[in-house]
């Protein structure tokens, strides 16, 4: 099965969804990943798909014109006091655009609250045919694989899953073998990038790198192949924010290089299911 790739929002931070879709098509991606939920990140596009009918119409046309599919939307964060119902407009947009998944992460330390709100988020997404994919982030409340699995097992929702970001997996010092106990059906896509092997001592530096200075796959020190090869072959969403390279190259050339380097890496490190059976 050929690898499939999505252009994630942070890779082209600030790029409007229609333009992002056309860029994805011209550069060879299969999917796009939008952010209709504003996060207040510097450089974020100032008009949301949930706020502008004109932008939604243009985006729908871009998807139809190109044949690019919407893989997921982000980011349905669960923080202290979060009411998951606030994400309903974004879910409606995702469903209207043919999206499949909603990315979530948990930023509260209150476990019972997190489980309750995550389960509610899954229930709200179900009528739209959407799954909720939980991502652990080393600077968040749920910062480890074990923490994410605890939430998923406690919530007990069929449309819940686990989204691995190889950067976060490395930074959280996870063990590869721990991926083997995760139910295979919980993997629906994952985030790809690279970064230096050395893990920053400060949260500030870790945050800066993950938001502004990730590297092309194969350029850094993360053993991407060993992580990817522990999970089923799923779509790979390239989330590779690098502020300087976007400024130097522009959205399209940078997106193209992200995809070219990813494909070159996987040609050199094929997933086990891609290797022909040897008698």
UniProtKB/TrEMBL annotation:
GO terms for molecular function: endonuclease activity. Keywords: Endonuclease, Hydrolase, Nuclease. It comes from the Bacteria. Residues 24-241 form the Xylose isomerase-like TIM barrel domain. InterPro entries: IolE/XylAMocC-like (IPR050312), Xyl_isomerase-like_sf (IPR036237), Xyl_isomerase-like_TIM-brl (IPR013022). It holds the Pfam family AP_endonuc_2. Gene3D superfamilies: Divalent-metal-dependent TIM barrel enzymes. This is AP endonuclease.
